[in-house]
Specification:
The complex is a heterodimer of chains A (417) and B (164). With 417 residues, chain A is α/β, with parallel strands linked by helices. Chain A folds into 2 domains: 255 residues, Aconitase, domain 3, CATH 3.30.499; 148 residues, Aconitase, domain 3. Chain A is built from 15 helices and 18 strands. By secondary structure, chain B is an alpha/beta fold. The longest helix of chain B is centred in the last third of the chain and has 12 residues. Classes of the chains: A alpha/beta (417), B alpha/beta (164). Chains A and B meet through α2, α3 and α5 of A and α1, α5 and α8 of B. The structure holds iron/sulfur cluster. The site of iron/sulfur cluster has 13 residues of chain A, from α4 and α11.
C-alpha cells in the first residue's frame, strides 16, 4: 500500500515506517519564531538549561511589530537580539527583512522533504515547496530549543484537486477562499491538505504559497504542493541545504479527495467575521469600507503588487479610503521598486509601508476604529483582529482590493481589465 | 470530582476573540492576560469568572492563531477545563502544554446549559451534568504527565533534571 507525503516525511524523521494516526517523536530540520521569541526566551529560561541544543536549526525573524512602536516592543526586540548573540544563532533576520514566512522562503530554508515547525499558525506555508511544516505554540518551541525533539501525530491527508484554468481577473486567492467557503473552517482540522490538479501545476510558487498559507484557515496541520521543475528552479541557489523531493505515492490512502473546478469561478470575498463566510463578488459589490490593505504573508509578493499596480496605474484611490501597501519582504520591495510598481502605487495615493506584518494583527500601522471596515488581502478576518472589536474585515485578492480602492466600495476587478 | 460553573459559547470561538492580537506582544504576565480573557467575545467574562469555572463550546474551539496566550489567559482566569465538540489543532496542543485540560464530547456540550454546575472526573473521564453522565476518552499517559506537572515547561524541566 502506498504512502502519503506526510507518512513518508515523518517516517524518515522517525526512522521507521509510519501510518496516519500514529504518534512519532521527531527532531525538526528548522524551528521558526518571530517577535514571539521574546516570550519563548522567557519560557526557555525556566527550563534550567544554559544553551540551545541545536542553534543552527533556529530561524528567528522579526516582523510582527517592526520597527518597534513602543518601549515594550522595543524591549522584546532587544531581548531577542541579545539572546541571538549569546546563543550564537546564525540565522537571525532583524527588522529590515520582512514577514517571517516570506523571508524564511526566499532565504532557502523552506525545502522539499524537510520537517519545519514554527511558532506561527501560518507555518503551513512551506508546504508550497514540498516541506512538512506545521505551527506549534511557544512552550513547545522553548522545549524544542532545549531538547530538539517533540511528538507529532501523523496526519491523515485530504487531497484537493483543482481543475481548470483561472478566468481572467480571478487568482489563487479567489480559489482558496472558494474552497474554504465550501468546505468550512474546520474541514481539515488535524489533517494534511495536498493541493493538486492542473491549475496548481500552472500556479507560480507565489500563488501556491497563497494556497498553503491559507490551508491554516481550514484547520489544516499542514498544506502541501508537489514539488516540480518550477519549484526546483525557484529554489535554484537559494536552497540552504541539500534536499530530497518527497511525494505521495499514486496508491496512497487519502482520507478524502475533493474536486474543485475553477473554469467559471468569480472573484470571491470572505465577509466578517469568519474566513469561511465566503460570497461571490456579485453579492457584496457596493459594500463601503474605510481602509484597504495590500500585503501580508498571503498576498504581499511581487506578483500581487504587480496585479494591484496594473489596476491602479494612472488612477487615484478614492478620497474616502486609505490604502496601505506593505511588500512582504525587502527583496520583494526592491523588485517592485525596480519595476516601477511602487511608483505607480504611490502616485495613485497608496501609503507604502515598510515590509512586515503591518496592521494584520491589529498592533500598529493602521488599526481600525470602532465602526470602521477594512478590505484586506490577508488571511484572517476574525472580530477585532485589526483593531476595534466593533470593526469589520473583508478578505479578497489584490486585484479586488485595488479595484475597490478606486471606487471606495467593493468592486469587481474584472471591470478594470 | 471537581465542581464548576459553566460559561457556554457557540462554534468557531477563535483565538482573536479569546485573546486579542493587539495584546500578544504587550501583555506578557499571565495574570494580566487573564484580565483580557474572551474580551472580544464576552466582555463580562473576565470580570465575573470564578476559579473552577468551565467553558463549554461548540465545534473548532480555539481556531486561528498559534498564540499560546489563548490557553494561558483562560488557565490563569481560573478556568479548570474547556469542554467542546471539537478543538482546533494548535489550541489543543497549547492547552495541554499550559496544563489546561481540554475535553471533547459532543453529547455533553449539547446537554449543558450556561450557568449550570457540572462535575468533571478527570481520572475516569466522566462529566456529570443535570441531564446525565457523559464520558470523554481519558488522556494518554504522556499527556496526563504534562497536565499533572502543570504544563510542558515544568514537565520538560523535570525530565531534563532527571537526565542529569
Ligand atoms: S502577515 Fe499577518 S498572518 Fe502573516 S505572519 Fe504576519 S501577522 Fe501573521
Amino acid at each position: 500500500m502506498g504512502k502519503t507525503f506526510s507518512e513518508k516525511i515523518l517516517g524518515l524523521k522517525a526512522g521507521r515506517e509510519v501510518q496516519a494516526g500514529e504518534v512519532v517523536t521527531v527532531s525538526p530540520d528548522r524551528i521558526l519564531s518571530h517577535d514571539n521569541s521574546a516570550a519563548i526566551i522567557k519560557e526557555f529560561k525556566k527550563l534550567g538549561v544554559k544553551s540551545v541544543k541545536a542553534p543552527q536549526k533556529l530561524v528567528i525573524i522579526l516582523d510582527h511589530i517592526v520597527p518597534a512602536s513602543s518601549e515594550k516592543y522595543a524591549s522584546n526586540h532587544k531581548t531577542i537580539r541579545e539572546f541571538v548573540a549569546e546563543q550564537n544563532i546564525p540565522n537571525f533576520f532583524d527588522v529590515p527583512n520582512g514577514i517571517c514566512h516570506q523571508v524564511f522562503s526566499e532565504n532557502g530554508f523552506a525545502l522539499p522533504g524537510k520537517l519545519i515547525l514554527g511558532a506561527d499558525s501560518h507555518t503551513t506555508s512551506y508546504g508550497a515547496f514540498g516541506a512538512f511544516s506545521a505551527g506549534i505554540g511557544r512552550s513547545e518551541v522553548a522545549s524544542l530549543w532545549a531538547v530538539d525533539e517533540t511528538w507529532l501525530r501523523v496526519p491523515e491527508t485530504i487531497r484537493i484537486e483543482i481543475n481548470g484554468k483561472l478566468p481572467s481577473g480571478v487568482y489563487a486567492k479567489d480559489v482558496i477562499l472558494k474552497i474554504i467557503g465550501d468546505e468550512g473552517a474546520d474541514r481539515a482540522n488535524y489533517k494534511a491538505v495536498e493541493f493538486t490538479g492542473e491549475a496548481v501545476k500552472k500556479f507560480s510558487l507565489a500563488s501556491r504559497l497563497v494556497l498553503t498559507n491559507m490551508a491554516a484557515e481550514m484547520g489544516a496541520k499542514n498544506g502541501y504542493c508537489e514539488p516540480d521543475e518550477k519549484t526546483i528552479q525557484w529554489l535554484g541557489d537559494r536552497a540552504k541545504d541539500d534536499f530530497n523531493v518527497v511525494t505521495s505515492d499514486p496508491d496512497a490512502v487519502f482520507e478524502a479527495v475533493l474536486k474543485h473546478d475553477i473554469f467559471s469561478l468569480e472573484p470571491q470575498v470572505a465577509c466578517p467575521h469568519t474566513v469561511d463566510n465566503v460570497k461571490p463578488i456579485s453579492e457584496v459589490e457596493g459594500t463601503g469600507f474605510h481602509q484597504a490593505l495590500i500585503g501580508t504573508c498571503t498576498n504581499g509578493r511581487l506578483e500581487d503588487l504587480e496585479v494591484a499596480a496594473g489596476i491602479l496605474k494612472g488612477k487615484k484611490v478614492h478620497p474616502q479610503v486609505r490604502v496601505l501597501v506593505i511588500p512582504a519582504s525587502r527583496q520583494e520591495y526592491l523588485k517592485a521598486l525596480k519595476k516601477g510598481i511602487i511608483e505607480i502605487l504611490a502616485e495613485a495615493g497608496c501609503i507604502i509601508l515598510n515590509p512586515g506584518c503591518g496592521p494584520c494583527l491589529g498592533a500598529h500601522q493602521g488599526v481600525l476604529a470602532p465602526g470602521e471596515v477594512a478590505l484586506s488581502t490577508a488571511n484572517r478576518n476574525f472580530r477585532g483582529r485589526m483593531g476595534s472589536r466593533e470593526s469589520e474585515i473583508y478578505l479578497a485578492s489584490p486585484a479586488t482590493v485595488a479595484a475597490s480602492s478606486i471606487e471606495g466600495k467593493i468592486e469587481d476587478p474584472r471591470k478594470f481589465l | 470530582m471537581k465542581k464548576g460553573r459553566v460559561w457556554k459559547y457557540g462554534d468557531d470561538v477563535n483565538t482573536d476573540v479569546i485573546f486579542p492580537g493587539k495584546y500578544t506582544y504587550s501583555v506578557l504576565e499571565p495574570e494580566e492576560m487573564a484580565r483580557h480573557a474572551l474580551e472580544d467575545l464576552d466582555p463580562d467574562f473576565a470580570r465575573k469568572v470564578k476559579p473552577g469555572d468551565v467553558i463549554v463550546a461548540g465545534r473548532n474551539f480555539g481556531c486561528g492563531s498559534s498564540r499560546e496566550q489563548a490557553a494561558t489567559c483562560l488557565k490563569h482566569a481560573g478556568v479548570q477545563a474547556v469542554i467542546a465538540k471539537s478543538f482546533a489543532r494548535i489550541f489543543f496542543r497549547n492547552a495541554i502544554n499550559q496544563g489546561l485540560p481540554v475535553l471533547q464530547s459532543e453529547e455533553a456540550v449539547d446537554s449543558i446549559a450556561t450557568g449550570e454546575e457540572i462535575e468533571i472526573d478527570f481520572s475516569s473521564g466522566k462529566i456529570k451534568t443535570k441531564k446525565g453522565v457523559f464520558t470523554f476518552s481519558p488522556f494518554p499517559e504522556s499527556v496526563l504527565g504534562i497536565l499533572e506537572e502543570g504544563g510542558l515547561i515544568p514537565y520538560t524541566r523535570k525530565k531534563l533534571k532527571g537526565k542529569k
